[in-house]
Amino acid sequence: MENIALGIILSQLIIIPLALKWELDLKTVTPAGLLIGFMAGIGISVLSPWIASDFIWRVSAGVVLVLLFSATILLLRFFRDPVRVPPKRDDCIVSPADGVVKYVKSIDENSVPVSSKGNESVKLAQPFIDILPDRKGYLIGISMSFLDVHVTRAPIPGEMTFCEHKTGSFLSLKKPEAVYRNERVNQVIKNTRVSIGIIQIASRLVRRIVTYVGKGDHLSLGQKIALITFGSQVDVIIPNLEGLQLEVKVGDKVLAGETIISTMAGAHCQERVVSHDKSSLS
Description:
There is one protein chain. With 282 residues, this protein is of the alpha+beta class. 27% of the residues lie in helices and 27% in strands. It has helices at 2-21, 26-47, 55-78, 126-130, 178-181; strands at 92-94, 99-107, 137-144, 151-153, 158-166, 184-190, 195-202, 209-211, 218-219, 224-228, 232-239, 244-246, 253-254, 260-264. Helix 1 (2-21) runs antiparallel to helix 2 (26-47), helix 1 crosses helix 3 (55-78) and helix 2 (26-47) packs across helix 3. The chain is elongated.
């Protein structure tokens, strides 16, 4: 029991501060930390015949085991790809990413913000300006943690009319200049009613954004479009059309391909340009 207690104490001392630093959900992290500590305690007991009984050696072994088990569980959780079922309606825009809504900003002819990092306000690329009637719309920022699913999905059905992949310097997203220099993918999806812009921004720990679709491809609602590894952010640009109603606010938890972030009253925004089987949505 002494080794089990030691493992649990070490896991909490290591995992909780990291969770707070990376803004992870403690309701998820704390139980996982207890399990990891229990496993580390068993590991210390198993290794005891081969390590000295000195307390320092047991602590050292416990730290290594906690880090090893934590990394393994994190990777298994990160690369999961659950099936998502899009809403069966033709008047909605769904979230392209899992995460928490970080900001909801209005865009007008005098201000076109992209990110709230620091005090910076960065103009949108021209393809995003072109989809905004009268230069009016909304920008929704979705922050993704290590614990979120990182497969991104099409927020509307339609054709991808723009897809641009820019490599970057992998700066921390807490730095204002990150929106200029971090790796990102800019995309526009268009159908007969609306065009939606998507900006997928990598953080400093990310080494690539893998895209599954390209310019000219026809997409169904909720179809997988990319994978961003580890911590990241996705911005969504939505034109301010007549009858458009935002359905999310800052702090809301959203799921890619399922959570409705906006509706358009009286609009038929779903263009069934291509029929996909269920596997294409998974």
